[in-house]
Structure formats: C-alpha cells, structure tokens
C-alpha cells in the first residue's frame, strides 16, 4: 500500500473511502499504481455496479437510466423512451409550450407528428427492454382551435398488431393502457383526421409511463 499518495478532487483535498467508510489506500506494484475504483468513480459523478454472476464491472458516466422495480411505474423520459424515423412522416420530439397546451393543462414534452389528415400520419418510438405495460397519453390539435372535429389513432407493435385504437377530439387528450407482447420495444402511432385538414398528433410524456 502507498500511504504517500494523496488525492485532489476539483482542486480540493479528498480522501477515498471504502463501503464501510474506512480510508481506501492506493497500491503501488511494479511501477503501476492502483486506486479504489468505486470511490474514485462515484466521486466524479459516475455510477458503478458489479455483477458477481458475470464477474463484470459497469461504469456509467452519463444519465442513469430509470429502471423500475417489478410493477413500479416511471414517467417517460430521455432515459427510457426514444423517437425514431418511420417512413416519410414529419415527426420528432417537441418542447414548444404553445403547442403543448391542451385546455388549461400545460404539458412539457411530447412525441409529435404534423400534417395529419385523411391519408394518415404517424411516428414511432422505442421503450426500454423488459417493459411489460405502458400508459400512453394521446392528443390531437389543429390551428383552427374553434373547429369541432375528431381524429382516430392506432398504436401498433413492429408486426403491425394493433395494441390500442381510439378517437380523440380536437384539442383534447386520451389515456391508453397497453400490455405489451413479450420482447416488444418498438411502437408505432398513426393518426387519421378529416380530409383537407392539417392537424398535429401527440404522445405526451408528462402523464405517460412504463412498467416492468
């Protein structure tokens, strides 16, 4: 052990400690110095985990994915859902507050597709592996906010099996609860509206969730 080595963390003196709170001392051996990995990684903001069965250490330096326990629900976030391109549809993610106001409720983030009419438009997104059930909040809007009309939507898996279908009025949202087939991670949401209209379809993250 090399008790002569000290640490500076962001310019300040720092002492590495083990899981029991005791000082963890570096080891110098044949010209190489070994430091306590967990203590150093956690001090720099990384998440470190050890899988004894695989004899494997994992270090995560970015955002840590939310992993719900069995039957526990977690909201949609950048850690557990992601958009991907489906066909020619003009889709993506929006955080535009004006677009995401439905009645008296202000939402923050949504998957979105524009140009919804009788021909249909949609988007696709992925959920974390192991997800068994999801809650999906679907919305529909047009710039003609005083126009009374409705659209329809279908949420399908990769094989085209419809997991939910419904009707949504202009300027409103509808909640859906889906039980996913085994190993399903890709979901496809398609909207259809009246001919000649130019509506926008949404899946609102704020009240949507995943469950293992």
Give an overview of the whole structure:
- The chain contains 1 helix and 19 strands.
- The chain has one helix at 37-43; strands spanning 7-9, 12-14, 27-29, 32-34, 47-51, 56-60, 73-75, 81-84, 91-94, 101-102, 105-106, 110-116, 121-127, 133-141, 150-157, 162-169, 172-179, 186-192, 199-211.
- The two termini are 45 Å apart.
- It is mainly beta.
- Strands 7, 9, 12, 14, 17 and 19 form a 6-stranded antiparallel beta sheet that branches. Strands 8-13-18-15-16 form a 5-stranded antiparallel beta sheet, with no helix packed on it.
Q: How big is the Rg?
A: 24 Å
Counting DSSP E segments of at least 2 residues, the number of strands comes to 19
What is the overall pLDDT average? Answer: 86
Distance between the termini: 45 Å
How helical, in percent, are the residues? Answer: under 10%
Residue runs with pLDDT of under 50 for 5 or more positions: none
Envelope shape: elongated
Order of helices and strands: EEEEHEEEEEEEEEEEEEEE
Strand content: over 45%
Q: Give the oligomeric state.
A: single chain
Q: Total number of helical segments?
A: 1
Classification by helices and strands? mainly beta
